Amino acid sequence: MNAPVVIERPGPATPKSVGAAPADTHEKTHRPEDFKLRSHESVNDPNLRSSFRGAMDFLIERRAVHFSDFVAFDQLRKLGEQTRQHALNHLPDLLTQLEAKLTELGVHVHWAETPEDANRIFLDIAKAHDARMMVKGKSMVSEEIELNHVMAEHGIDCLETDMGEYILQLDGDRPSHIIMPAIHKTKQDVAEIFHEHIAGAPLTDDVNELIGIGRKALREKFGASKIGVSGVNFMVAETGTIALVENEGNGRLCTSVPDVHIAITGLEKVIEKLEHLIPLYALLPKSATGQAVTTYFNLITGPRRAGERDGPREMHLILLDNGRTQAYREERFRATLQCIRCGACMNHCPVYTRVGGLSYGTTYPGPIGSIISPHLVGLKSTRDLPTASSLCGACGEVCPVGIPIPEMLMKLREAGRHSVSQSMTPPTQALVGQGEVRLLVEVLAWKGWRLLYSHALLYRLFAWFAPRLRFLTPAWQGGWTQSRAPLKPASKSFRDRLKERNHSPR
Q1: Lowest mean pLDDT among 222-226, 289-293, 357-361, 491-495
Q2: Using CA atoms, how far apart are residues 387 and 90, in angstroms rounded to an integer?
Q3: Distance of CA 199 to CAs 202, 213, 217, 218, Å?
Q4: Largest CA distance in the chain
Q5: What are the beta bridge partners of residue 320?
Q6: In terms of DSSP H, where are the helices of 302-417?
């Protein structure tokens, strides 16, 4: 099969037969449309804020140790950025080359345009092997397609084996960080979850004991499962190598013990050569967790070969689009696809640190999620996310592959302010969706501001009247006063104060 053609995605997929609706009714569901409400709740939760603040400070400090030489970091970052840009500039050819090489190595390559396509592929493979259970390593793309819940609808258990993801699965919760999914849980929370859901688990808040309880419960599942599922960090087109970075060893078990290994990834993760892994791997763990290297760095090149004693007997790779080609097609948004999912932008973001990942209601939270999610589910439902930023620039400064995140946020804000028109390029129309996404009061306010500042006489009249009529300032000023004091003109204008100062005795 050739690489997929560029498509436009006007909004989120709504699967029917193998839909993305959670099968577990007690699951804590979140929507991007509820960002303002949920962020307000999070800001008023002192325990959550304290937990995130402490964790983020710890990660920031660990990263700073490895990148204390700013000149060296800048050079490495430029190399990482160039590596990712080179791959994106040649993406169609590299995907075709990757498919050919993987097929040569005995890997079955599948193209999935939408989440329902990807889930259907998983279901077909499971049925072919009469599998009733899958063990899964950490994979944000599998979260993106709601794999666990879709498989549950068809009687197939999809068990998370990453410790953080396992904790959340037991609790019916969702990841709040792309690297540390259960960062919003305390050890007391974990103790109660294990005690409730794992037979015979004592109620203890000793971290080492809790990890032992979780590992013991998971260990027996690897050998009992016919299918192992993993994500992908990078794919090498030249050699057909799939690189998987992890710390717990569960990823290696998922990809080697079961008879069938299914890897799923976004189609942007491909790079050209094996040597291009070096700068990216030098950047990823240091940016993500502040580690020089991860515990495990798996390089997978196909299923088990003749004479080999371990590894899967059958291997599949699912390449998911789900809006990525829409971002790729429009050059001003293409840099979004450079992301290597390190989470550094989240760790340094003052907004994410205060509201947490669950407030965003999307698979990918924080600054990077605010520029990725509109392409995956449409800008109409995620219109509040690009505005969830102070534009302090920290996310752009720490990005290890040079994504201009603040610039992307501004472009998405601009796209959200305009209704669909013939002057827009097709990808932008697909991104925005239908209708205007700004309020009438906002439109009138900005039109009034432009009129006032475009005419000197009007501005002078306003500057004269505003201080004298300040008592008429309304106490309620729309969304501004929901969390801020009302704007009120000063008793004297700056021009009047300057006149008084210049004429006062020194």
Answers
A1: 491-495
A2: 32
A3: 9, 10, 9, 13
A4: 96
A5: 112, 266
A6: 324-329, 331-334, 344-347, 350-355, 366-377, 394-398, 405-417
Sheet holding 296-300, edge to edge: 270-271, 234-236, 241-246, 296-300
Segment 26-31 shows an average pLDDT of 63
Q: What is the pLDDT of residues 376-432, one digit of tens each?
A: 988 888 989 999 999 999 999 999 999 999 999 999 988 876 633 333 334 444 454
C-alpha to C-alpha distances, 278 to 88, 217, 301, 385, nearest whole angstrom: 18, 36, 17, 33
**pLDDT tens for residues 199-242?**
999 999 899 999 999 999 998 899 899 999 999 999 999 999 99
3-class state of residue 413 by DSSP: helix
What is the distance between the alpha carbons of residues 131 and 46, in angstroms, rounded to a whole number?
Answer: 44
Comparing 179 with 15, which gets the higher pLDDT? 179
Q: What is the pLDDT of residue 18?
A: 31
Which of 402, 76, 90 minimizes the C-alpha distance to 272? 90
- The 3-state DSSP class for residue 373 equals helix
CA atoms within 13 A on the CB side of 363: 20
Q: What is the pLDDT of residue 29?
A: 63
Which residues make Cβ contacts (< 8 Å) with residue 97, sequence separation at least 6?
Answer: 237, 238
**Read out DSSP for 70-113?**
HHHHHHHHHHHHHHHHHHHHTHHHHHHHHHHHHHHTTEEEEEES
User: How many Å from the N-terminal Cα to the C-terminal Cα in the chain?
Assistant: 83
Cβ–Cβ < 8 Å for 167, 190: yes
Amino acid, single-letter form, for residue 186: T
What is the β-pairing status of strands 314-320 and 107-112? Answer: parallel
Q: List CB contacts of 444: < 8 A, sequence separation 6 or more.
A: none
Pairing relationship of beta strands 241-246 and 296-300 according to DSSP bridges: antiparallel
Which has the closest alpha carbon to 375: 430, 421, 419? 430
Enter the tokens of residue 139: 């994979």
Residue 442 has pLDDT above 80, yes or no: no
Q: What is the 3-state secondary structure (H, E, C) of 85-97?
A: HHHHHCHHHHHHH
Predicted model pTM: 0.82
Phi, psi of 260 (to 5 degrees): -125, 130
